[in-house]
């Protein structure tokens, strides 16, 4: 096993001719795809991995400077594809990873036949003529809460993000993976994600994009999905799902998994 495979806990399942790469967002790990994977392994070669900084990765490998921008994660993704000798893939990215996939596709569009983007946002901060959902004051309070008492922040943030109560399995699952992150890494990564502005690169994304968004999402307003659709450089399609929360593949699998499968299997009509 190479250093890239070991560092990212890479798993390759199934043996289909077409490769699907599943990439998770902030506060989770590859287990967030547990409801989707069984539907894919009979027809596809499925690649799962953990982003650096996830609680399942070695914190010693986390380079604070490298991951101070999302470029570090895009380079990691390209390294993973190279390590596995992936010539072309369908990339399914959630939240952070949806934008990372878009970023990587600008450098190597040949490696991606399509991007399926779940709960993606190029910028969380409101701006002139742009609604990302957060004011700077909101983000400052978020960062302070993470820094001052990480465990308490996790307990409060998990049900808000998932869109359920503390008793739900999905909330407990997200609480677990969120709490598994080392607090200083979570703090640094939250700053990188919530202060990012990837709007300038959207026009450079030429790979077809399928934008999937929950009807109600604490982190990403529905209008952001439409913004992506209007500003991406290639073909794109938006579907707003009747799900609630930022991790719909975990909290509403009965609604979301059929939608994701449909977008994996069908190409955008030109």
The DSSP helix count reads 10
Low-confidence stretches: none
CATH architecture: 3-Layer(aba) Sandwich
CATH topology assignment: Rossmann fold
Q: Main sheet?
A: 7 strands, mixed
**What fraction of the residues are assigned to beta strands by DSSP?**
15-25%
Radius of gyration from the alpha-carbon trace, in angstroms = 17 Å
Can you give the mean pLDDT? Answer: 95
* Estimated structural class: alpha/beta
Question: What would CATH call the class?
Answer: Alpha Beta
Order of helices and strands: HEEEHEHEHHHHEHEHH
Care to count the β-strands?
Answer: 7
What order do the strands of the largest sheet run in, or round the barrel if closed?
Answer: 1-3-2-4-5-6-7
Which descriptor suits the 3D outline? globular
Please state the oligomeric state of the protein chains shown: single chain
Would you kindly provide a written description of the structure presented here, covering whatever features stand out?
Belongs to the AB hydrolase superfamily. The chain has helices spanning 3-7, 71-83, 96-107, 136-148, 150-162, 169-179, 183-194, 222-231, 248-251, 253-265, and strands at residues 11-13, 19-23, 45-48, 89-94, 112-118, 209-216, 236-244. The protein contains ten helices and seven strands. Helix 8 (222-231) links the parallel strand 6 and strand 7. Strands 1-3-2-4-5-6-7 form a seven-stranded mixed β-sheet, with helices on both faces. With 270 residues, the protein is α/β, with parallel strands linked by helices. The protein has a single domain, classed as Rossmann fold (3-Layer(aba) Sandwich), CATH 3.40.50.
């Amino acid at each position: 096993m190479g250093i890239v495979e070991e560092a990212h806990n890479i798993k390759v399942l199934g043996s289909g001719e077409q490769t699907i790469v599943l990439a998770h967002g902030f506060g989770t790990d590859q287990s967030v795809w547990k409801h989707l994977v069984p539907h894919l392994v009979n027809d596809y070669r499925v690649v799962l991995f953990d982003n650096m900084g996830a609680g399942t990765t070695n914190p010693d490998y986390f380079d604070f400077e490298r991951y101070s921008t999302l470029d570090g994660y895009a380079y990691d993704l390209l390294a993973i594809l190279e390590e596995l000798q992936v010539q072309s893939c369908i990339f399914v990215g959630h939240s952070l990873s949806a934008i990372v996939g878009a970023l990587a596709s600008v450098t190597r569009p040949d490696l991606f036949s399509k991007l399926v983007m779940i709960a993606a946002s190029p910028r969380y901060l409101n701006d002139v003529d742009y609604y990302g959902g957060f004011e700077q004051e909101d983000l400052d309070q978020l960062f302070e809460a993470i820094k001052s008492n990480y465990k308490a922040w996790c307990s409060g943030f998990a049900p808000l993000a998932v869109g359920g109560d503390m008793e739900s399995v999905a909330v407990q699952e997200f609480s677990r993976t969120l709490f598994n992150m080392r607090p200083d890494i979570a703090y640094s990564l939250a700053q990188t994600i919530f202060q990012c502005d990837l709007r300038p690169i959207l026009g450079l994304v030429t790979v077809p994009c399928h934008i999937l968004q929950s009807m109600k999402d604490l982190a990403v307003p529905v209008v952001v999905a439409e913004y992506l659709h209007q500003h991406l450089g290639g073909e794109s399609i938006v579907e707003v799902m009747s799900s609630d929360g930022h991790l719909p593949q975990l909290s509403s699998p009965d609604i979301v998994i059929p939608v994701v499968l449909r977008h994996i299997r069908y190409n955008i009509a030109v």
